[in-house]
């Protein structure tokens, strides 16, 4: 190469490099390639002094070996004409224009260069058409895929392209490829941005350095009334938009990321909108680290979860609410009780639990129907709300059970006042569906006690106190008292066992003989129930009959006793023993609860073939006192049936005499309290004498209860009493022992005038 040629080439290369540098600037700044590419072609075209420059883009989606041209930029030097069909190749393929042989080379990244006449047809013909003498084409790749080519046509001379020039042109092609790649990425990014704009998800990026300022925030923060640019201008302000209670958790999450303990975090928090209202956000944060694992930024997404939260809150509220009344339910009450308990243990003022149950609510349901019952429960809830302060809690536990947590009490007087207020409020009549409904409540109260075992124990005590309020007559409140706790528990357990005792055949009748004083004969047997309890042993009726009477178990138990007495009479008869009269005790509830007592008795007599006169029913004065006109009919029907009737514990009531006139009894049982000192006390002697005289006048016989001594027997004989019953003669005995006893006495073990032998086994009574 001569010096002048070398100088020329160096000059051309410098011009080219300078044009490429300018083109690079143009391309890298470009936000719109369609505007910068023509300028680039012009810079390079002028610098290379070519006739034309082409930039072709092929369709990446089409058959790539056809090279369908989807854009064609052309630059022509001044004075160079471009024939039709050569200036715009868009829509045609490289195969069609004759450049088919270039496709594989370009796709492999090779450039193509040469004199037009040296190319084979159809390339040669194509160049002829355009007046091209020499040409070079360099491939352009974008995102590692063949994108198209940049072509140079020298139309003036048969120019030879030096490898350096071709390298420079390839550099240009790489720049164009990079620009195309960047434009595509920007396009994707702006598409993504548009998606983000319309989504509830916000994107953010925080600096990795304290104070971890905001360096990017998607524009859709606008939905909360903020401007992303403004927030970015004061990078630490974002923290102030988040409610302060979440700041420690956020700081802890950032710390974990900085210390490399975690690479992602998840947190729910509330954000203040510009109008002051609050939204719930779920924030995910990810550590962005460089290749050396240094934290570069923290970025992530913020999702609006307000709707989900409010749905969650609604569900949580429903789970804690009694749906009928809108009050708190048991779970919510216990939760609050636990809090109150913990607070009082830490020294806060004490509190009290009122546990209520409506008296006879079942009657409302039974008479007016369940919808009316529900209306009543809602009305009760309203009244209870009206009785408490805002800091107290009213709950419905289900059915007709309610509870009130009276918070912040100073003394027991305030607790009593609240219970009285509740009682009075509920006692006022309710108007339910046009009916006036009266109800009352029984209330068990437990004030907080620092020695108490915990909320559960408090509720058990409240339950016991409520049980006592009911047991002692309802429509009242009772405080829990420790000394009654054990007894009540016992009673409740026995009450539960009682339900099963008949089915498990745990009851048994004992019989206590009744002796005629004049003849010394056993003229009757009082059937006395015993309970062979599986763990407590033999239980006397004084232990369980009162419980049976309050729980309603007395009805099946009483029926069982009548049936069993008849069954036993039948058994004795079948064994050839002729039993005397058998007396069975009847409770008030059997009269009140079962107006068909007479039918039960009649059925039992018939079932076992027992004559009615062989059975006596013992009714106490207290039973008769509770007997109304309605029940009197049942008594009369029993009488008509032919069973005998005795009045028990006579003399203990206030108007004993009047019962004798109203009801026709066969026998009067003089209460043991008069017999105890009948041998010594004038007062008792006078009463017994009066009763004997009255009975004689009314045609009734008399029997003394609880006779324990020979002196008592003597005195009773002297006073004209007909019969005696008591440990002196015999304690109550199991049925199996009675047949022998009867045979012994009938064999003349004692004469009509003689005293029966003293009983040696009185304890078993
Ligand atoms: N509804 C029903 N009530 C029943 C039934 N069985 C019994 N009862 C009631 O229980 C009461 C207590 O009965 P019990 O413990 O069996 O006591 C009886 C005798 O053992 C006792 N007694 C008899 N003699 C003496 C004596 O000399 N001294 C003394 N301290 N006690 C004695 O008295 C009870 C019988 O009394 P009464 O019935 O008044 O004649 C019992 O009173 C019934 O009310 C049942 O099936 N159903």
Automatic annotation (TrEMBL):
<feature type="domain" description="GGDEF">
    <location>
        <begin position="349"/>
        <end position="482"/>
    </location>
</feature>
<dbReference type="GO" id="GO:0071732">
    <property type="term" value="P:cellular response to nitric oxide"/>
</dbReference>
<feature type="domain" description="PAC">
    <location>
        <begin position="265"/>
        <end position="317"/>
    </location>
</feature>
<dbReference type="Pfam" id="PF01590">
    <property type="entry name" value="GAF"/>
</dbReference>
<dbReference type="InterPro" id="IPR013655">
    <property type="entry name" value="PAS_fold_3"/>
</dbReference>
<dbReference type="Pfam" id="PF00563">
    <property type="entry name" value="EAL"/>
</dbReference>
<dbReference type="InterPro" id="IPR052155">
    <property type="entry name" value="Biofilm_reg_signaling"/>
</dbReference>
<protein>
    <submittedName>
        <fullName>EAL domain-containing protein</fullName>
    </submittedName>
</protein>
<dbReference type="InterPro" id="IPR029016">
    <property type="entry name" value="GAF-like_dom_sf"/>
</dbReference>
<dbReference type="Pfam" id="PF08447">
    <property type="entry name" value="PAS_3"/>
</dbReference>
<dbReference type="InterPro" id="IPR043128">
    <property type="entry name" value="Rev_trsase/Diguanyl_cyclase"/>
</dbReference>
<feature type="domain" description="EAL">
    <location>
        <begin position="491"/>
        <end position="746"/>
    </location>
</feature>
<dbReference type="InterPro" id="IPR000700">
    <property type="entry name" value="PAS-assoc_C"/>
</dbReference>
<dbReference type="InterPro" id="IPR000160">
    <property type="entry name" value="GGDEF_dom"/>
</dbReference>
<dbReference type="InterPro" id="IPR029787">
    <property type="entry name" value="Nucleotide_cyclase"/>
</dbReference>
<dbReference type="InterPro" id="IPR003018">
    <property type="entry name" value="GAF"/>
</dbReference>
<dbReference type="InterPro" id="IPR001633">
    <property type="entry name" value="EAL_dom"/>
</dbReference>
<dbReference type="Pfam" id="PF00990">
    <property type="entry name" value="GGDEF"/>
</dbReference>
<dbReference type="InterPro" id="IPR035919">
    <property type="entry name" value="EAL_sf"/>
</dbReference>
<dbReference type="GO" id="GO:0071111">
    <property type="term" value="F:cyclic-guanylate-specific phosphodiesterase activity"/>
</dbReference>
<dbReference type="InterPro" id="IPR035965">
    <property type="entry name" value="PAS-like_dom_sf"/>
</dbReference>
<dbReference type="InterPro" id="IPR000014">
    <property type="entry name" value="PAS"/>
</dbReference>
<dbReference type="InterPro" id="IPR001610">
    <property type="entry name" value="PAC"/>
</dbReference>
């Amino acid at each position: 190469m001569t010096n002048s040629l070398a100088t020329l080439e160096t000059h051309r290369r410098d011009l080219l490099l300078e044009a490429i540098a300018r083109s690079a600037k143009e391309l890298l700044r470009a936000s719109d390639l369609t505007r910068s590419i023509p300028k680039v072609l012009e810079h390079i075209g002028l610098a290379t002094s070519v006739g034309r420059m082409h930039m072709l883009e092929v369709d990446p989606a089409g058959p790539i070996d056809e090279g369908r041209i989807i854009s064609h930029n052309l630059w022509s030097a001044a004075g160079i004409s471009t024939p039709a069909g050569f200036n715009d190749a868009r829509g045609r393929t490289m195969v069609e224009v004759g450049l088919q042989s270039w496709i594989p080379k370009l796709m492999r990244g090779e450039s193509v260069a040469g004199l037009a006449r040296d190319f084979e047809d159809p390339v040669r013909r194509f160049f002829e058409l355009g007046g091209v003498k020499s040409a070079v084409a360099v491939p352009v790749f974008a995102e590692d895929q063949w994108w198209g080519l940049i072509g140079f046509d020298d139309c003036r001379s048969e120019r030879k392209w030096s490898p350096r020039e071709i390298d420079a042109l390839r550099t240009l092609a790489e720049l164009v490829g990079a620009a195309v790649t960047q434009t595509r990425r920007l396009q994707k990014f702006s598409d993504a941005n548009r998606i983000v704009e319309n989504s509830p998800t916000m994107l953010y990026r925080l600096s990795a350095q304290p104070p971890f300022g905001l360096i990017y925030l998607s524009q859709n923060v606008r939905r909360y009334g903020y401007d992303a640019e403004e927030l970015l201008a004061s990078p630490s302000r974002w923290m102030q938009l988040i409610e302060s209670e979440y700041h420690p958790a956020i700081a802890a999450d950032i710390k974990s990321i900085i210390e490399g303990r975690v690479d992602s975090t998840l947190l729910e928090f509330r954000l203040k909108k510009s109008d002051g209202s609050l939204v719930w956000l779920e924030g995910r944060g990810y550590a962005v680290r460089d290749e050396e694992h240094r934290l570069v930024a923290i970025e992530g997404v913020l999702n609006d979860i307000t709707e989900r939260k409010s749905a969650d809150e609604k569900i949580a509220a429903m789970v804690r609410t009694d749906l009928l009344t809108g009050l708190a339910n048991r779970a919510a009450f216990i939760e609050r009780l636990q809090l109150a308990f913990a607070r009082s243990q830490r020294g806060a003022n004490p509190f009290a639990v009122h546990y209520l149950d409506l008296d006879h609510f079942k009657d409302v349901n039974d008479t007016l129907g369940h919808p009316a019952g529900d209306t009543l429960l809602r009305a009760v809830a309203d009244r209870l709300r009206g009785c408490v302060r805002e800091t107290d809690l009213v709950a419905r536990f289900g059915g007709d059970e309610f509870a009130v947590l009276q918070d912040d009490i100073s003394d027991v007087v305030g607790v009593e006042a609240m219970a009285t207020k509740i009682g009075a409020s509920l006692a006022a009549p309710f108007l339910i569906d046009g009916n006036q409904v009266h109800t009352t409540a029984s209330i068990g109260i437990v004030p907080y006690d620092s020695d108490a075992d915990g909320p559960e124990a408090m509720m058990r005590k409240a339950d016991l106190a409520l049980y006592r309020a009911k047991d002692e007559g309802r429509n009242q409140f009772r405080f829990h008292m420790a000394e009654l706790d054990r007894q009540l528990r016992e009673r409740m357990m026995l009450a539960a066992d009682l339900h099963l005792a008949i089915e498990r055949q745990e009851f048994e009748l004992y019989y206590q003989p009744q002796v005629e004083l004049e003849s010394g004969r056993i003229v009757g047997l009082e059937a006395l129930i015993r309970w062979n309890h599986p763990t407590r042993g033999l239980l006397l009726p004084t232990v369980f009959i009162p419980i049976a009477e309050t729980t309603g178990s007395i009805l099946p138990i009483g029926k069982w006793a009548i049936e069993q007495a008849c069954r036993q009479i039948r058994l004795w008869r079948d064994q050839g023993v002729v039993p005397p009269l058998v007396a069975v005790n009847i409770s008030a509830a059997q009269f009140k609860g079962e107006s068909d007592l007479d039918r039960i008795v009649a059925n039992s007599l018939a079932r076992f073939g027992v004559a009615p006169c062989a059975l006596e029913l013992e009714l106490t004065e207290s039973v008769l006192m509770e007997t109304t006109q309605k029940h009197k009919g049942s008594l009369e029907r029993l009488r008509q049936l032919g069973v005998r009737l005795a009045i028990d514990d006579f003399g203990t009531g206030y108007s004993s005499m009047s019962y004798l006139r109203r009801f026709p009894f066969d026998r009067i049982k003089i209460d043991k309290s008069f017999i105890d000192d009948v041998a010594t006390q004038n007062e008792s002697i006078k009463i017994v004498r009066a009763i004997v005289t009255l009975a004689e006048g009314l045609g009734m016989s008399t029997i003394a209860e609880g006779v324990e001594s020979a002196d008592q027997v003597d005195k009773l004989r002297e006073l004209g009493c007909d019969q005696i019953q008591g440990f002196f003669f015999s304690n109550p005995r199991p049925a199996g022992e009675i047949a022998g006893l009867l045979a012994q006495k009938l064999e003349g073990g004692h004469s009509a005038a003689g005293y029966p032998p003293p009983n040696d086994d009185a304890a078993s009574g």
